[in-house]
Specification:
34% of the residues lie in helices and 21% in strands. By secondary structure, the chain is of the alpha/beta class. The protein folds into two domains: 319 residues, Aminopeptidase, CATH 3.40.630; 115 residues, Alpha-Beta Plaits, CATH 3.30.70. Bound molecules: zinc ion. Zinc ion binds next to loops.
Length: 459
């Protein structure tokens, strides 16, 4: 089957994947393609060209999400089917909603070449294979199909992360997100326009969602499993910590008179790292990921350090206990250093379950392919977590060598990537035939929204 001329073959997939890895390539096999940079534009342009030359219609919405659409349901027949979730008054020629599959093409600074990009390219090939299978079998699907490249999943340049899918899912406000600025003061709206991805298209209306991604952990590798299927996402929250000291001369100021924001901030960083010791091993993970020192001059005692701490656990109570402990310790550090430290909760994401019917669908697809599968939780945030607020979603993982991610050393083998494409193709085929579409608004999978979760935490 896999001869060179076949545009959906395994070798075509590998050629496409390894080509995309050259865009924004770094010295040590990573990529640097932060959202809306020139490198992000080049990757987007590659997707557009590939999709259009393979018969997809590309749309870009107002937050810069890209959708490569395949109309699988004939327009004439769509109106007669009683399709749940059909958009009312849609400009579509076909009224049938879309199965969305995809991930994100942006990366962290000095990020890996697999995180996100694998999921988008796997989805493009899975979609093409599903289209070919339907053409061969003459079967008529229930839904249309679109591959999505979500805007700014990584959040390295514009915070918060998972921005495009959260706007699509109605969790974040479009105008608010367009006004978000990077450290240089450039807004999302300006950056979208600068690379010509300030879209005006109506995005396809989703009925179900599926995503495949690298695990970014080592459970699958350790247990020699081919595929992971996600049952739930971890509870996460961030703490915005502003340490306010007093600027002075590093030479002329007496030690007793210094209010050094960086010294106090250093103790806060250690407290964030050490708070995990209050719980069982690996029950809580924490880091200070961002740290900005002002004025950052070699001869000035720092006046301000702004940082963001990230706390995650499968158990929401553990995160809340750790957060309370940190707030007490930080208040103590502020007192001891006679400076002000402001702490605010933000970006609280509730633990959420994926629909069990989707987990079973993935398990069946994997069994049909003769592969092994394991259920697991995701500690990392994903576009699928946002999408699971809006429609039933399936989230799958392929193994990560050594479990490393968000770094140049990130690696997944070609064989594992190809297995993932086969499984995603199988799951996508079931979704366009109508599977999972009726799993809606059930208590099992619809939890609280991000906004509700945010307001439920006492600040
Ligand atoms: Zn990712």
């Amino acid at each position: 089957m896999n001869h060179q001329a076949d545009p959906s073959s395994d070798s075509a997939f590998l050629t496409a994947f390894h080509h995309v890895a050259t865009i924004g390539a770094t010295d040590n096999n990573g990529v640097d393609r932060q959202a809306l940079t020139l490198e992000d534009k080049q990757t987007r342009d590659w997707m557009r060209t590939w999709a259009e030359s393979n018969g997809f219609e590309v749309r870009v919405d107002a937050i810069g999400n890209m959708f490569a659409c395949l109309q699988l349901v004939p327009a004439a027949s769509a109106g007669s089917a009683d399709v749940p979730g059909s958009p009312v008054g849609s400009a579509d020629t076909s009224a049938a909603p879309y199965v969305l599959i995809g991930s994100h093409l942006d990366s962290q600074p000095l990020g890996g070449r697999f995180d996100g990009a694998y999921g988008v390219i796997a989805a493009l090939f899975a979609a093409l294979r599903v289209k070919e299978e339907l053409a061969e079998s003459g079967q008529r699907p229930t839904f249309n199909l679109a591959v999505v490249n979500w805007f700014n999943e990584e959040g390295g340049r514009f915070a918060p992360s998972i921005m495009g899918s959260s706007v699509y899912a109605g969790l974040f406000d479009l105008e608010e997100m367009l006004a978000v600025t990077d450290l240089a003061g450039t807004s999302v709206a300006e950056a979208l326009a600068a690379i010509d991805y300030d879209g005006t298209d109506t995005p396809p209306e989703a009925i179900t969602y599926a995503e495949i991604h690298i695990e970014q952990g080592r459970i699958l590798e350790r247990e020699a499993m081919d595929i992971g299927v996600v049952e739930s996402s971890w509870y996460t929250q961030k703490l915005d910590i502003d340490v306010l000291g007093e600027q002075s001369h590093t030479g002329a100021t007496a030690m007793a008179d210094r209010h050094d924001a960086l010294v106090a901030a250093a103790k806060v960083v250690l407290a964030v790292a050490e708070v995990v010791g209050e719980f069982d091993d690996e029950a809580l993970v924490s880091s200070v990921g961002q740290h900005v020192v002002e004025p950052n001059s070699p001869i000035v005692v720092p006046r301000r350090v702004h940082m963001v701490a990230d706390l995650r656990s499968s158990d929401p109570a553990i995160v809340q206990t750790a957060r309370d402990s940190l707030r007490r310790q930080i208040a103590e550090i502020a007192r001891a250093h006679d400076i002000t430290i402001n702490v605010e909760d933000f970006d609280i994401r509730d633990k959420r379950h994926f629909p069990p019917e989707g987990v079973e669908l993935a398990e069946k697809a994997v069994a049909n392919e003769g592969l092994s599968i394991r259920r697991l939780e995701t500690m990392a945030g994903h576009d699928s977590v946002a999408m699971n607020h809006r429609v039933p979603a399936v989230m799958m993982f392929v193994p990560s060598v050594d479990g490393v991610s968000h770094c140049e050393r990130e690696f997944t083998t070609d064989e594992d990537m190809l297995r993932g494409v086969r499984v995603l193709t199988s799951v996508t085929g079931e979704l366009v035939r109508g599977q999972l579409a009726d799993v809606r608004d059930g208590e099992v999978w619809v939890g609280r929204s991000v906004a509700e979760a945010r307001s439920s935490v006492t600040v």
